[in-house]
Amino acid sequence: MEKNTLLTISERTGYxxxxxxxxxxxxxxxxxxxxxxxxxxxxxxxxxDYRPNLVAQSLxxxxxxxxxxxxxxIENPFFATLSxxxxxxxxxxxxxxxxxxxxxxxxxxxxxxxxxxxxSVDGIICVPVSSSPELHEKIGRRxxxxxxxxxxxxTTLSYICTDNFTGARMATEYLLQKGYRNILAIQGxxxxxxxxxxxxxxxxxxxxAGARGTVVGDAFSVENGFREAKKAFSRPxxxxxxxxxxxxxxxxxxxxxxxxxxxxxxxxxxxxxxxNNGFLDFLDxxxxxxxxxxxxxxxxxxxxxxxxxxxxxxxLPEPAPRQLLIQPTLVVRDSC
Amino acid sequence: MEKNTLLTISERTGYxxxxxxxxxxxxxxxxxxxxxxxxxxxxxxxxxDYRPNLVAQSLxxxxxxxxxxxxxxIENPFFATLSxxxxxxxxxxxxxxxxxxxxxxxxxxxxxxxxxxxxSVDGIICVPVSSSPELHEKIGRRxxxxxxxxxxxxTTLSYICTDNFTGARMATEYLLQKGYRNILAIQGxxxxxxxxxxxxxxxxxxxxAGARGTVVGDAFSVENGFREAKKAFSRPxxxxxxxxxxxxxxxxxxxxxxxxxxxxxxxxxxxxxxxNNGFLDFLDxxxxxxxxxxxxxxxxxxxxxxxxxxxxxxxLPEPAPRQLLIQPTLVVRDSC
DNA sequence: AGGTTGTGCGCAATCGTTTGCGCTTGTTTC
DNA sequence: GAAACAAGCGCAAACGATTGCGCACAACCT
Lengths: 336, 336
Prior knowledge:
2 copies of one chain form a homodimer. Chain A folds into 3 domains: 6-52, 434 Repressor (Amino-terminal Domain); 61-162 and 295-327, Response regulator (Rossmann fold), CATH 3.40.50.2300; 164-291, Response regulator (Rossmann fold), CATH 3.40.50. Chain A contains 12 helices and 12 strands. Chain A has helices at 6-13, 17-24, 35-47, 54-61, 77-92, 106-118, 134-142, 164-177, 193-208, 222-234, 248-260, 294-313, and strands at residues 66-71, 96-101, 123-126, 145-148, 158-162, 182-186, 212-216, 242-245, 270-274, 288-291, 323-326, 329-331. In chain A, the strands form 2 sheets. Chain A has a 6-stranded parallel sheet, with helices on both faces. In chain A, helix 1 packs across helix 3, helix 8 (164-177) runs parallel beside helix 9 (193-208) and helix 10 runs parallel beside helix 11.
């Protein structure tokens, strides 16, 4: 009920608010506060269980011990996992995470980033959905900013992403090497960099092998996977001999569709996926896929962000933007 | 570079900070601000793209448009999914989410809850780890508070949880009915209400059927599932004919262990799981399980929280605590 | 003319911290 | 005995918003 602020402690101890503040924020040394004062004040603070008001602290210091995390769809297991990893890593460094969801909308992304600003977050980790980095770079000038999972072609911002081109190429080449010649790729959000790069990698491999490749789909969702697979494999005269699902959600939808058509991976056609859900090993057959090292990406992103934050804190020269394409790995199982 | 605050707008328009504030927070009517003033001020605000400083706003109003979400382990897919759902639902209501992770530690839980307080969150959704509700109730008096997934036996707080007792009973009875007589249950964190209730339900069913039931394990993790299953089924003289995994993480570990021992669900023993990961349908065999309606729980929790918030906002009498045990459903597949 | 009512706006306190600067004392130095 | 310095602490101005109260003026009524 009764409030505990610097003021009340100040009144109860007879010391000024300034002194109380300095003692309780551990600056007693620096300001040469007497031992007596330190003791009296800490005692009182302990007794009344004083906790600084973080809002007031943020207002005054323009810091908040909080990082803003912006993803385009937290309901997607991929981003849920990625978020979980980032939240965990930030927590380990004593930072809290404010999570926002842009829902693949540029407008929402704008809102969220502005919200982050006006809350004085100390840094931002963002899976961008916009087509141009201007806004991000502008904000990045004031607030340490790292792009994750998606990036911009030309930008001064740091980013940590999977090398989706190479990954898709690897997957496709593996299919080709296994003898599949007419591959259906089901992609995610076409405007997103990962999908585009995967399409590029896919087509590049298919073309240089003189095979046939088709790209369909428009979302990183189970439904999209189901719909597109169903549509493609329902047509009697289709001639696909393999499917490349661009995410594990798409894969699940695809498998559902195949089942409903009595088709089985490996037996009736080749199936390969892009993504890193451990449970792919538990499917029957286990799914061959290109795995993204999600934890590594999250961890590098957090690390990069803190490097920038540290540099700014000590007004050192900004480290050169770290622009990383993490190599995914082909995990061979039994689906093709 | 140039700041935009009420003060700067005030200077540029010639109106006082008060007037600018009232116009920009939509209270022009209420305070009878002239049309001229409203126009001049909104124009200036638009032009300089003014955004209120949410930190200052929070400090003044004690509101933050933010809900604190506390879970005991965001890296666990169950909580990752639950968090994602809650974050999404809160977002839809215009609220942001501050996520904290207690890591199953009471101390961390305490910290997080205090942090929430001192940040003036407008409400808290919490998966508790403490054994007693005192702290939670105390905070609940100041801040709308809802428990999710775990609850306390005697509490005045609202909670939304799965009926774990009934769920476990259902699962076990199904196994018994299928003829299994010696069941190994691998549980999660033993101190947690869900695990305890599931153990109760399990033993209750086993005992009243005169069958044998054993409980082992101590974490909601893949590793725990692997370790316990491996240990149990490695012993040549073991006589278990079925496994009940208390979560899908535990299940995955169990399956790994079984595989390593050349054992297969359904063929060699019965397997049943507690949890709601859609991908259980994609395993071979598909896993029979008790499903918790996660989205429903999240949604009810959010709804309940907002009911409390609304009541307090209008200083209506607090609604009676809503204490809900959601019924899980048995989803029969092919693993037993 | 004097009183009432209404309109449009500003003053200043408040939320709880942080921090630059400077004011007292007391001690040392030459 | 004056100057110089250190030790220990407080004043007051920020940070940027909100809001109760009241002031000034015009319009209206009797």
